[in-house]
Amino acid sequence: MIHAGLYYAAGSRKALLCREGKALVEAFCAGHGIPVERCGKLVVAADERELPGLEEIARRAEANGVPGIARVGPERMAEIEPHVRGVAGIHSPETAVVDFRRVSLAYADEVRTRGGEIRTTWEVTAIERRRAGAGEELILRSPADELAAGAVISCAGLWSDRVAAFTGSSGTQRIVPFRGDYMKVRAGARHLVRGLIYPVNDPRFPFLGIHLTRRIDGEIWAGPNAVLAFARAGYSIGDVVPADLLDTLSYRGFLRLAFRYWQSWAAEMVRDIWRPAFAAAVRRYVPELRDEDLEPGPSGVRAQSVRLDGEMVDDFSFGGSGRVLHVRNAPSPAATASLALGRVLAEMAEKRFDL
């Protein structure tokens, strides 16, 4: 999805870079023949209790300069999404979908065309500093090889805290992996969704809640939920790496987070293992969707940075020292903001590394 920037606090990096990044990604896609579909997003308040949250989303969208935003009532909602039910909504006609796999492959082609090299399956196990003349160079080590560099920008996602620790920049924040499972809507029920249908998100969390997404290929996905992954790359409930799980459970920031919001996490776990509960969450907005209309879909893992006080970091964050720059937290809308994030990192690198 190419986000329009509805949810983010005004003045935050997410807000600023999402708006800039949306324009850049859409222009990049136009220049590379990658289809973009502006199918629009409808944020739905299912009942009156959610109206204050809906109004806060509208306020943020307006503060962020999101174009075309409209507050809509049940009649207009029915015109946009005939099968949706709710008391009020916000319509964002500029929100779009794209195949980000194609976008990523096009980025890779640009890197190679400009003389860069991409090494996949090249695990970095250490980063060492070594004197080189009047300065220093950095040695990136893998099990079978090493690479010398004058400067390093790390964007390690699920392993960003561990890679930062290689250079003595571990800090007090840790990555907590949250698995998000999707369900696919069977072909016979896809007519129930025209574009993107979102709930009013819980402001305590950076997650947007279970929603319905029409993809560029015509499939409809429902989800994701948000449950603790038992491994950094734990894409299913059966993926367990004891060392990763112990690392999470022994981190005081996670324990504080879990204790504070245990009821929310318990509800997420129920939806994760019991399909009727997952379907019921979707039916709050699309009542005609039946349990049997859903089938298992893919999963993703969100690299969520958590502070020692138990609060989740809700913005893009960076760190590092010397000739090393680390991306510490870059969750959604990082894909939308990708080219804008690249600009920021390039500017930071030029200043920090005196390039």
For the termini, the CA-CA separation is 34 Å
The average pLDDT value, as a whole number, equals 93
Number of strands: 17
Derived from helix and strand composition plus strand pairing, the structural class reads alpha+beta
* Rg, nearest Å: 21 Å
Q: Percent of residues in helical segments?
A: 25-40%
Which regions are unreliable across 5 or more consecutive residues at pLDDT < 50?
Answer: none
Q: Estimate the strand proportion.
A: 15-25%
Task: Give the SSE order as H and E letters.
Answer: HEEHEHEEHEEEEHEEEEEHHHHEEEH
Count of runs of 4 or more consecutive helical residues: 10
Shape: globular
Largest sheet: 9 strands, mixed
What does this entry look like structurally?
The relative contact order is 0.17. The model has no long low-confidence stretch (mean pLDDT about 95). By secondary structure, this protein is of the alpha+beta class. It has helices at about 15-30, 50-65, 75-80, 100-115, 160-165, 240-250, 250-260, 260-275, 275-285, 340-355; strands at about 35, 40-45, 70, 90, 95-100, 125-130, 135-140, 145-150, 150-155, 175-185, 195-200, 210-215, 220-225, 225-230, 295-305, 315-320, 325-330.
Key descriptive features of the protein:
355 residues, alpha+beta, 9-stranded mixed beta sheet, 17 strands
